[in-house]
Here is the input.
Amino acid sequence: MKAARKPKNPRVGLRTSATLATVFVILGHAVFGFEQPLSVIFVALLTGYACALFFEWVDARANGVDPGFMGGGVLKCVDFLLSAHMTSITLSFLLYFNRRLWIMAFAVAVAIGSKYLLRVRLNGRLQHFMNPSNCAIAIVLACYTWTGVLPWSYTTDLHGAWDYIVPLVIVALGMRLNLLFTQRLPTIASWITTFIFLAFVRSSFQHSRFVAELVVLTGIPMVLFTFYMITDPQTSPSRLRSQVIFGSSIAAAYSVLLLLHVNYTMFYSVTLVCAIRGMGLALLNVNESAAYLSPASAADSLVTKVPTAVLVDTKTVSSA
Here is the structure.
């Protein structure tokens, strides 16, 4: 008889993601040819750690509970900061704004803050519904149009076979991460399938080359977007049908925004879909609350009409 398989610790997946992102940034500045100043990394990480600790303390104080980084020693504090580390290190290589470091601090603060401001109740607990790094990127790009996402596809110093090896390694690691920890492969499959279908539709109506519509999928930015951003388990659905709808919706939003000639389409598409999903979850919570309260309200109105003697008898029967 086989022993029951132990459930995977979600922290292991987060540790793996944070480690991969950190290694990617180190290689990016040392080998790949990232052009942001190194100071961006330290500004992003320090801002992320400070905001995560401060916002968690304020939230815990407001709700009368202990902060999530307390009560478990150094390891618990480190695990708590993994999410902030992942968000900060990701923003440090996605955004490009020359030497205006305050933009990085602002973006990280927005990303971490969105986790506490934009929340809905899901399975009995408050859960943020906006992808933090994606939300921050969309806001920064919309507010400061002179900023941008690194335009050299992250590998300006790589040549020859390395132009193929590095993306394949990123894809392989992303597949392993999503297969073992996030279980978001249906999201990836539905996003890519719908993207290819809509690319064919666009090429047919616009008389453009179908291959040209697919070229964007081969770049490292889109690879990172596909395997590491839209599959965030905290801000994407887990049920199979919901994953398919989620991934397909992102592709549909991408296509619509592309036809409207909106720049940085992929970031705005995820922001739009996550916002709609969050509003849907909030509306669902309101309907469930109304359904839960309505029987109680009916009972209260009934009690006011029942004679006192009947109430006494009812209480006696109930206590018996």
Q: What stands out?
A: The beta strands are 95-96, 119-122, 125-128, 148-149. The first strand starts at residue 95 and ends at 96.
